[in-house]
Amino acid sequence: MTIPNILTLLRLLMLPLLFVVFYWDFQYHYLAATIIFIFIGFTDFLDGYLARKLNQFSPFGAFMDPVADKIAVAMCYILITELYQNPWVTACVIVIIGREIAISALREWMASQGKSEKIAVANIGKWKTFFQMFTIGAMFLAAEHFHIYWDYLAYGSLIIATGLTLISMIHYFQQAWQQLELGSKAQI
Question: What is the value of pTM for the model shown?
Fold first, then answer.
């Protein structure tokens, strides 16, 4: 087993700990959950970096890394939905999780058509990921009520993350649509 794969599995194993700490009622438990989440995010960065640096790519890693990412993001946003119990927060979370499901299905479908290489990751996707991750940490920290400005930062970041999520989804579907049109014209 390669170091990047071990880090991916470690990321998955940290999720139950984050869940327990999130609900365990002690002072600054949301801060502790934020620290665990930052560690999870760091392992995501580190496993990709090491896979490239050590040339340790594997089919297992190619499959599990995005799965671990999606599970971590979905779990954290579900926790945020329960924490805030606000319809606007819930609507944003539905958009974010719904996009992840839709794009995963789109990629799988494009792969079944032999066109997975036609769907390229754009810079907007990297910004989307950054703001989604930042938002999770900001929302967890805002729950500690450190300062009113954390609330503004957290909500603002959630709005930006949701907007970037929608834009990146539109970008992916536009790329797929172009491939669908090319395929249908070739059949005529």
Answer: 0.86
